[in-house]
């Protein structure tokens, strides 16, 4: 997790509370599929989407400002 001071933590919590009413939240985790042109050399079966093309599943952590 990222390190922030108490003032920044408070700001992040207020941002999430204003955005969606969730108290005490510092960040949100999501994943997105990034299409790839070439399959990886190893474990290529792990990178096949349900639609049959290759993609990487990339996790991301964002704050209430989507940073």
What fraction of residues sit in β-strands? 15-25%
Helix content: 10-25%
Described by strand count, sense and barrel closure, the largest sheet is: 2 strands, antiparallel
Structural class determined from secondary elements:
alpha+beta
Poorly predicted ranges (pLDDT <50, ≥5 residues)?
none
Number of DSSP strand runs: 2
Overall shape: it is: elongated
Compute the CA-based radius of gyration. 17 Å
First CA to last CA: what distance? 14 Å
Domain tally: 1
Textual characterization of the structure:
The chain has one domain. The radius of gyration is 17 Å and the shape is elongated. It has a two-stranded antiparallel sheet with strand order 1-2. The chain has one helix and two strands. 22% of the residues lie in helices and 24% in strands. It is α+β, with helices and mostly antiparallel strands and 67 residues long.
Summarize this structure briefly:
This protein is an alpha+beta fold and 67 residues long.
Topology diagram in text:
Layout: H1 6-20, E1 28-35, E2 55-62
Antiparallel strand pairs: 1-2
Features:
two-stranded antiparallel ribbon; 67 residues; alpha+beta; 2 strands; elongated; single chain; 1 helix
């Amino acid at each position: 997790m990222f390190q922030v001071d108490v003032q920044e933590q408070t700001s992040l919590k207020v941002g999430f509370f204003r955005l969606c009413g969730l108290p005490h939240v510092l960040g949100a985790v999501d994943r997105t599929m990034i299409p790839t042109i070439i399959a990886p050399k190893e474990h290529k079966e792990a990178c096949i989407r349900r639609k049959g093309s290759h993609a990487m599943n990339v996790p991301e952590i964002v704050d209430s400002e989507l940073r």
